[in-house]
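Researcher: Here's a chain I'd like modeled. Treat it as a single chain, no partners, no ligands.
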Amino acid sequence: MQKDLPDQISESKPVAAQEDGETAKRADHKKKVEKKVEREEKVDEALEDSFPASDPPSFNKTTTGG
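Model: Modeled as a single isolated chain. C-alpha coordinates:
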Protein backbone atom coordinates (compact mmCIF):
# COMPACT_ATOMS: atom_id res chain seq x y z
CA MET A 1 0.00 0.00 0.00
CA GLN A 2 1.42 3.37 -1.04
CA LYS A 3 1.08 6.28 1.35
CA ASP A 4 0.18 9.70 0.01
CA LEU A 5 2.90 12.27 0.49
CA PRO A 6 2.01 15.47 2.30
CA ASP A 7 1.39 18.42 -0.02
CA GLN A 8 4.45 20.21 1.32
CA ILE A 9 6.80 17.50 0.24
CA SER A 10 5.26 16.85 -3.15
CA GLU A 11 5.23 20.59 -4.01
CA SER A 12 8.69 21.42 -2.70
CA LYS A 13 11.52 21.98 -5.12
CA PRO A 14 14.52 19.69 -5.18
CA VAL A 15 17.51 21.02 -3.28
CA ALA A 16 19.50 21.59 -6.49
CA ALA A 17 16.67 23.69 -7.94
CA GLN A 18 16.52 25.78 -4.76
CA GLU A 19 20.27 26.35 -4.92
CA ASP A 20 20.02 27.33 -8.59
CA GLY A 21 17.33 29.84 -7.65
CA GLU A 22 19.55 31.33 -4.95
CA THR A 23 22.49 31.45 -7.36
CA ALA A 24 20.33 33.25 -9.91
CA LYS A 25 19.22 35.75 -7.26
CA ARG A 26 22.83 36.42 -6.28
CA ALA A 27 23.85 36.84 -9.92
CA ASP A 28 20.95 39.24 -10.49
CA HIS A 29 21.90 41.25 -7.40
CA LYS A 30 25.56 41.35 -8.47
CA LYS A 31 24.55 42.59 -11.92
CA LYS A 32 22.43 45.37 -10.39
CA VAL A 33 25.27 46.44 -8.10
CA GLU A 34 27.73 46.48 -11.01
CA LYS A 35 25.38 48.66 -13.08
CA LYS A 36 24.98 51.07 -10.16
CA VAL A 37 28.75 51.31 -9.69
CA GLU A 38 29.19 51.90 -13.44
CA ARG A 39 26.62 54.73 -13.39
CA GLU A 40 28.30 56.32 -10.37
CA GLU A 41 31.70 56.11 -12.06
CA LYS A 42 30.29 57.82 -15.16
CA VAL A 43 28.84 60.61 -13.00
CA ASP A 44 32.16 61.02 -11.17
CA GLU A 45 34.04 61.20 -14.48
CA ALA A 46 31.61 63.78 -15.87
CA LEU A 47 32.02 65.88 -12.73
CA GLU A 48 35.80 65.72 -13.01
CA ASP A 49 35.66 66.67 -16.71
CA SER A 50 33.39 69.65 -16.03
CA PHE A 51 35.26 70.91 -12.98
CA PRO A 52 37.12 73.81 -14.64
CA ALA A 53 33.82 75.07 -16.01
CA SER A 54 32.55 75.41 -12.45
CA ASP A 55 35.39 77.78 -11.52
CA PRO A 56 34.81 81.50 -11.94
CA PRO A 57 36.59 83.05 -14.91
CA SER A 58 39.96 84.50 -14.08
CA PHE A 59 40.40 88.24 -14.32
CA ASN A 60 43.38 89.38 -16.36
CA LYS A 61 43.97 93.11 -16.63
CA THR A 62 44.84 93.94 -20.20
CA THR A 63 46.40 97.09 -21.53
CA THR A 64 46.37 98.43 -25.01
CA GLY A 65 49.18 100.45 -26.47
CA GLY A 66 48.55 103.51 -28.28
